[in-house]
Amino acid sequence: MKKILKKYRKFQLSLSPQQNLLYGFSIYAIIGWFLLCLPIVQKQAVSALDSLFIATSAISTTGLVTVSIFDTYNGFGQFIVMLLFQIGGIGYMTFTSFILLSKKSDLTHWHQRILNAEFTMPKGFQIKDFLKSVIIFTVTIEILGALCFYIAFTNAGVEHNFAIWSSIYHSVSAFCTAGFGLYNDSFEQFAGNTAINTIISVLAICGSLGFIVVTDFWNRLSGKTKRVTYTTKIILGAMTLLLTMGTVMIYFFEPSVAQLGENKLMASFFQAMTALTTVGFNTIPLGGFSLAILLVVIFLMYVGASPSGTGGGMKTTTLTALIAIMWNRIRNNKRITFLGKSIPLERLYVATSVFMLYASVIFVSTFLLAMSEDFPLHQILFETTSAIGTVGLSTGITGDLTSWGKMVLIIVMFIGRLGLLTFGLAILARRNKLTKRKKEEDLAL
Amino acid sequence: MKKILKKYRKFQLSLSPQQNLLYGFSIYAIIGWFLLCLPIVQKQAVSALDSLFIATSAISTTGLVTVSIFDTYNGFGQFIVMLLFQIGGIGYMTFTSFILLSKKSDLTHWHQRILNAEFTMPKGFQIKDFLKSVIIFTVTIEILGALCFYIAFTNAGVEHNFAIWSSIYHSVSAFCTAGFGLYNDSFEQFAGNTAINTIISVLAICGSLGFIVVTDFWNRLSGKTKRVTYTTKIILGAMTLLLTMGTVMIYFFEPSVAQLGENKLMASFFQAMTALTTVGFNTIPLGGFSLAILLVVIFLMYVGASPSGTGGGMKTTTLTALIAIMWNRIRNNKRITFLGKSIPLERLYVATSVFMLYASVIFVSTFLLAMSEDFPLHQILFETTSAIGTVGLSTGITGDLTSWGKMVLIIVMFIGRLGLLTFGLAILARRNKLTKRKKEEDLAL
Ligand SMILES: [K+]
Ligand SMILES: [K+]
Asked: A Gene Ontology biological process annotation (chains A, B) (predicted)?
């Protein structure tokens, strides 16, 4: 037994950080799938494919479901799903490192490298401090969230015992931007409940803002640093702008929110927030949205959350870098600057690559679903973007997909959580980086 | 009078090359619009908006039409349309320079700068040689094309007098990748005619390959240079690959070509060719295409032709540069290389900017059409991509658009022909490029 463990350890060490993440997430997904297939966790029989879909959706914190979680799985099954999206949300490496830390053994250099790959961070961040912040922050927020949820749910007339479970489940789900719920209509019945709307929004924004921002603020508040980093400013600025833009668009141009009266603004904000943070709960059925506003929601889902957070998407910082490239080209500047700072070359390539990879996966996945499914383009595109951004919003077609379509989305969700660049690097990166400098050659565009 | 001309000349000289192109195209579009509004060029009354649409579609060599050219305009009107797309096709600056050259006056430095902006070329190209090649090449090919068309049309039973006009018109239209035709079903009645399919394909590929490739080959054949440039190799390689891919996809996955029997391969190739070269003729009605294959056609239209050619789109070289960035990132290389050559930084930024600008315009235009029109997403997206890529293919909704929708497409076609980066530079570029070097700042992605 010890020999096998030793061999496994050796195998692990031979992998690149990205490959480790790939294998780690795969193993959690497979264990989750196996557990969800056991009849003792099910209220009613469910196919193996649907269980794989739910397991992948949970570990990737997407929240797309082909079957109702509440009607299909009992308390134990629901707990497994929650465990999966908790792991997925704070990252499997953070989780493993937490176990290691609690054993009082130190973080090895190898683990640090993997963590660095998982949370792309600016230089100068201390991994160990960072990790401590992650754990403290997650547990604190989730407990606070659950308490607030409990008060709000019981006030809304939810039965006491169910309210306890529901509070914990939804608090973890919202913070991990998983979007898994115990209600079959997501939060549509609570569309007018200000307390519940606020709790979800705060949890999802905290989770999706990312641990960089949290650590940064923590260092600022505790006096360790004098001001917040450039990355934090960009993240907060971009998120505020996008949330405002989304809310305004939905408020003024979406006919289906018009009949909500005084709750119109809250509902508009919630739908913009749910897409951008990639939490994926909804208070208005998206199937009734107009085409134009569905495109806005697709855009928000494509952009997604912030780096190092629990959310998905190509990230607000990537969008910022791309806008910086575009703007500086049009202005005929030689260097790429944004808000008075020059952005390093490497980051600009990463931004272009991430954007292109997302676009490619969405195109291929939409093409494959167009072949296998009988739904119009806007529903297929919405579902695909929701899966790659690990959002979990749907116009309502998830349950009606063919087996082929479900398999496509399983792969897309998995890639979405791992991050496209990480996925690519895991499979294709060369270990040997020594290459001869090649002659520059001009290419007309 | 002389004073006004002198003042206009001074004004022209004060503009940047990009601004000159913008004003030039605008003036041609407005003159064309005015002429097409005259009752003496019309067979039947047509609204001013439709005339503006046709004029813009012609100068931009798009070929989208809200009214039938043959049923609406008489021979004189058809001639104006042809003149517009001839001007648009070989570029308004080439045209102006041609007039200048024929006056035996020399090309000024100022004109050279504008030509450089219009045809983005690798260093080392001589503008004057280049221009001579353009004129010789265009006239030769168009005359040859017309002769071949005449034989093919009369063989197909087209009446002699109409065949002469039709041959000239379609030869110019195909070479300029304009896609304007005198038949209301484009070339659907000739779907099985090998000769006509071949003539259009050769003309469109020659036009869209671009004058860089032609000059390059000319220099190679005449012994001036020993081998073709890197750009030429990339252009030919990318075009061959994309054409093959498109043909294979349509051949195997498009149900509506299945009933064509022995003509299936030719029809599949023609539809891929028409999208990629952005000529925009079709032999099969696109309204009947399946969703999956429409997405493939949209992709081909988005990529488009080659730089310095008569075609539109973001260009095959841009796609190549983007794939190079993506591939080198995934392989973890520090420098961006492709086929053994390192691509300069500046070109990579241009590629990213062009891709992003195209994506932005398509998104905004699709959003606006989703607000004003009552068509499903795939038809709107197809129409928008066709307009920005100056392709002219349509699923058949152009004539049924609202006035608002027509105005959106007019702007999109115009921007599409001018080139997005040129358009942006014309409006926003700063003349003063002296900026202080700013401190590099890291941005997590
Ligand atoms: K989610
Ligand atoms: K065209």
From this structure: metal ion transport
C-beta atoms of A445 and B120 within 8 A: yes
For residue B42, give the DSSP letter: B
Distance A390 CA to ligand 1 centre (A): 5
Report the helix count and the strand count for chain A, using DSSP H and E: 19, 2
Query: Which of A384, A385, A391 is CA-nearest to residue A369?
Result: A384
Q: How far is CA A125 from the centre of its chain?
A: 22
Please state, in angstroms and rounded to a whole number, the distance separating the CA atoms of residues B150 and B169.
11
Percent of chain B with pLDDT over 70: 82
Average pLDDT, stretch A257-262?
81
How many CB atoms are located within 10 Å of the residue A40 CB?
8
Ligand found nearest the CA of B313: 2
The CB-based long-range contact list for A76-80 (8 Å cut-off, 24+ gap) reads: A76/A40, A76/A41, A77/A36, A77/A41, A77/A42, A77/A43, A78/A165, A78/A169, A78/A182, A80/A32, A80/A35, A80/A36, A80/A41
Residues A314 and A354: their CA atoms lie apart, in Å, by 7
CA distance B434 to B425: 17
Q: Residue B440: helix, strand or coil by DSSP?
A: strand
Chain A residues with CB under 8 Å of B330 CB are 353, 421, 424-425, 428-429
d(CA A13, CA B3) in angstroms, rounded, equals 80
With b meaning 16 or more CB within 10 Å and e meaning fewer, what string describes B316-325? Answer: bbbbbbbebb
Residue of A nearest to B366 (CA): A292
Quick: pLDDT tens for A24-78. Answer: 888 889 999 999 999 999 998 899 999 999 999 999 999 999 999 999 999 999 9
**Helix boundaries (H) for A187-229:** 194-209, 211-221
Q: Which residues pair with B208 in a beta bridge?
A: none
Residue A179 in contact with residue A207, Cβ under 8 Å?
A: no
